[in-house]
Amino acid sequence: MEDRIGKKVVIDMRGINKWFGSLHVLNDINLLVRAGERIVICGPSGSGKSTLIRCINRLEEHQQGRIIVDGTELSDDLKNIEQVRREVGMVFQQFNLFPHLTVLENCVLAPLWVRKLSRKDAEETAMQYLERVHISEQAKKYPAQLSGGQQQRVAIARSLCMHPKIMLFDEPTSALDPEMIKEVLDVMIELAEDGMTMLCVTHEMGFARKVADRIMFMDGGRIIEESNPRDFFENPRSERTKMFLSRILSSEKLC
Amino acid sequence: MSTVLTLLAVYFLYLVVPPLVKWAFIDADWTGTSRQDCTGGGACWVFITVRFNQFIYGFYPAGQQWRVNLAVILLAVMLVTLYFKRVSLKFQVVTVIALTYSLIVYILLVGGVLGLVPVDTSLWGGLMLTLIIAGTGIAVSLPIGILLALGRRSEMPVVRALCVAFIEIWRGVPLITVLFMGSVMLPLFLPEGMNFNKLLRALIGIVLFQSAYMAEVVRGGLQGIPRGQYEAADALGLGYWKSMRLIVLPQALKLVIPGIVNTFIALLKDTSLVLIIGLLDLLAIVQAAFTDPDWLGYAVEGYVFAGFVFWLFCFSISQYSRYLERRLSVGR
Ligand SMILES: Nc1ncnc2c1ncn2[C@@H]1O[C@H](COP(=O)(O)OP(=O)(O)OP(=O)(O)O)[C@@H](O)[C@H]1O
Ligand SMILES: [Mg+2]
Q1: Which atom of ligand 1 is nearest to the CA of A49?
Q2: What ipTM does this complex have?
Q3: Can you tell me the distance from the alpha carbon of A152 to that of B46, in angstroms, rounded to the nearest whole number?
């Protein structure tokens, strides 16, 4: 499918509704993402940001609406889900590295078992991406032997080894000590500069300003505001966005 | 207070240990061929040495006992290799080794092929039978237990219900009942003439019983794995079986090694229950030996010996498991 502008649409969410019991966590979400777009999602805690991006690789199931990722519609069909997950990488707040495997093994696992690469090819790819996140010298270590920032970079490399078309980030720097945030953000900025399609849930407004094509503000399960970084920061339309921004920007200055 | 307890303990040991040592070693008889040689007034280990072969091999024909020995030597070689070579304990490697070994042991002990004389299982007994029952019990119940544990956590209601029912039924019944049912009731339901092997029936009973316990042990481990691990595996597109095999189970099983070993030790000791269905495990054969008129009155020696052998095995197993835990704890 081609969009007006001519770039391919890689994520197409229409009329998404989702409930956890009686809690309406996603309320009529519509979202189009084109190849190469960088989108930052922010909003207060509990507003549904994580749930939204987790619907894209079906870690959460939506109850109404359609989600089409890279031409594959997400439904109960396991084949489709696996197809989508192969093309979509995800980085979690808590890293979620596999503690019983070395850094290198973490990275070769999915290419080996899902993409069916040979071990040699998988290891070559892994080393290449570990170099790219500046951590190749730690390849033989176990995750517990690394700092938080290093672990998160490994997690990014692990996703990239699958050559995903889309990367999802769910607050990748929120669990990190301040001095490690930058090393992770730098890797993400490099990734953005290479043209990766990215959706990032983050409160790092400096990062948002720098790389985002679009910033979305969520509250109460809705996308309240959606605009380019300049408009978003300089003249936000809704009151809630203004309040959120004033709170988050003032706390950022304190740091 | 603690000094008083210490003194009491020392006094107690003083009362117990010297007579025990005197009985078991100083006044004991070690060599001889019959009860006429029991002259020392202490323990008469002649009883054990005379019957030793039977205690180990049961009635396995003397000329064929090398087959049993070979099976043990193979096992020792395997364990020593694993110990020194530090072969990585990968799923495939372990499975292939275990299956190959079981097949070899089966062929060796049962015979009937490759020029090996068939040896009927009714001749098996003693320590050998105890170890075969316990070994088979653990080796077969572990994979079944893993599947049951996964089933119990499955999102498919039917699978889950079946697994819960299976586990709860077998866990709620004493092993002795299971063995009785296997040996007494099962034949009633089977068609006339179809009379399958007593040992096999006992093994099936023990495996079913044991897998229910194993399932609960493994489930404990599965619960210890954080949700993030499942999610990361899902997000990479691994799919259910691959994420279980590569991510979840290796971590979960490592967590429950102590539990698995505990179950194994309990099973090893529980094997002596098979004597009630007429299988002559170590304990049963020792008991049979001291009710032999030639050796009436030597029950204590028999029980001490049987107890010591059980202890030796259980203790070695628990030591091996501690080593395994230490070795697997790298990177944690
Ligand atoms: N598995 C679940 N079961 C029930 N409720 C859930 C579940 N996951 C999330 N919720 C609820 O849904 C709402 C949205 O959660 P979500 O994690 O998407 O918020 P978020 O915007 O990512 O918040 P945060 O900034 O704290 O991560 C919250 O109120 C949360 O408590
Ligand atoms: Mg969240």
Answers
A1: 21
A2: 0.92
A3: 68
